Amino acid sequence: MKRFYEKAEAGSLESGMTVLLDGRPIKTPAKEKLLLPSEQMAVAIANEWDAQDEKVDPSTMPCMQYAATAIDRVTTQRDAVIDEICGYGGTDLVCYRASYPAPLVKKQSKAWDPLLEWIKNEHDISLKTTTGLSHVKQDEAALERFRDLVQARNDFELAAIHTIVSLTGSMVVTLAVTDGHLDGEMAFEVSELDETHVIEEWGEDAEAALRRKNNKQSLLNAIRFLTLCD
Length: 230
Hints:
Layout: E1 8-13, E2 16-21, E3 24-25, H1 39-50, H2 62-74, H3 78-87, E4 96-97, H4 102-123, E5 130-131, H5 140-151, H6 155-168, H7 171-178, H8 184-191, H9 193-202, H10 206-227
Parallel strand pairs: 4-5
Antiparallel strand pairs: 1-2, 2-3
């Protein structure tokens, strides 16, 4: 759509922060009020609206997209979103190891073993590992602990967490991000370790390079939005 406003700015409603376009509060795609949990989030979203040119391009407004998703989708189906997020705990990336070649085995151990040690020490979650294609069933206590930690997050945080866990394939990496133990660059590096190894051995085609670039940017956008929720 064409840009229809002159000024975008953070503002307040009777029950929280929002974004104003020419003084009028905006709404989500589902026509709900855009009530935001922090002033810094409102400022970030206002900046996205203000940066639009003659046409409004939603793909350049990740914070607005996450906020709208939280309000329109997470709030209305919170339990289902939590189920999807926690599902990754039973098949966590860092628990599934290669049996060969030796360099990859070494890389996985170096990158992932410290994360398993961290989650055990920090959150009392002990996970089992396996090699090859065999499935390993995690203890119910570990899976329940994952759920407790996810349920403690608000809807805005869950919107970002859903993207982070989907891109990394790991509850361990996701919790390390939410706790500030890993930043975006580190999270991408450890979650893309296998593919990075293949690229180093055999090279990278243009399609794979574009996919990795887009995934990395999506991950960084989600993590940035997460920091705006406080």
